[in-house]
Amino acid sequence: MSEAKFTKAAEIIQNLPKDGPVKPTQEDQLFFYSHFKQATVGDVNTTRPGMLDFVGKAKWDAWKKLEGTSKEDARAAYVSRLLELLKGVDDAETKKYLEELEATA
């Protein structure tokens, strides 16, 4: 998986309109967060958030589960999941995102 394709995928996810046709679930969001962190940082390098930081703990736990996964594998999984999500929606804007991502080397 190329760095350029991963970067394009991350850009698409960050720019998805909140009221648009593509609506990632919380599970999808955790998947994208954890795989992005693993692909860009590597294994978890911080302490687990405190007991009242529920969102922070969920994100940290999702990232921690990927410990040992290579950055390349994390990038590939990230792009693959986005492609699945985009292919599940039949809409002009989504097709544009899909074409942009597939055209990236």
Descriptive report:
This protein is mainly alpha-helical and 105 residues long. The protein is built from 5 helices and no strands. The protein has helices at residues 3-14, 26-40, 54-64, 71-87, 92-103. It starts with a helix and ends with a helix.
Task: Please write out the topology.
Elements: H1 3-14, H2 26-40, H3 54-64, H4 71-87, H5 92-103
Helix pairs in contact: 1-4, 1-5, 2-3, 2-4
What is this entry, summarized?
With 105 residues, this protein is mainly alpha-helical. The protein has 5 helices and no strands. The termini are close together.
Secondary structural class: mainly alpha
Please tell me what the overall shape is. Answer: globular
The quaternary structure here is single chain
Listing every helix as H and every strand as E from the N terminus to the C terminus, the arrangement reads HHHHH
Amino- and carboxy-terminal Cα gap: 9 Å
Strand content: under 5%
Helix content: 55-70%
Number of helices: 5
Over the alpha carbons, how many angstroms does the gyration radius reach? Answer: 14 Å
What about the largest sheet?
none
- Return residue spans where pLDDT drops below 50 for at least 5 consecutive residues: none
Rounded mean pLDDT score: 95
List keywords for this structure.
single chain, 105 residues, 5 helices, mainly alpha
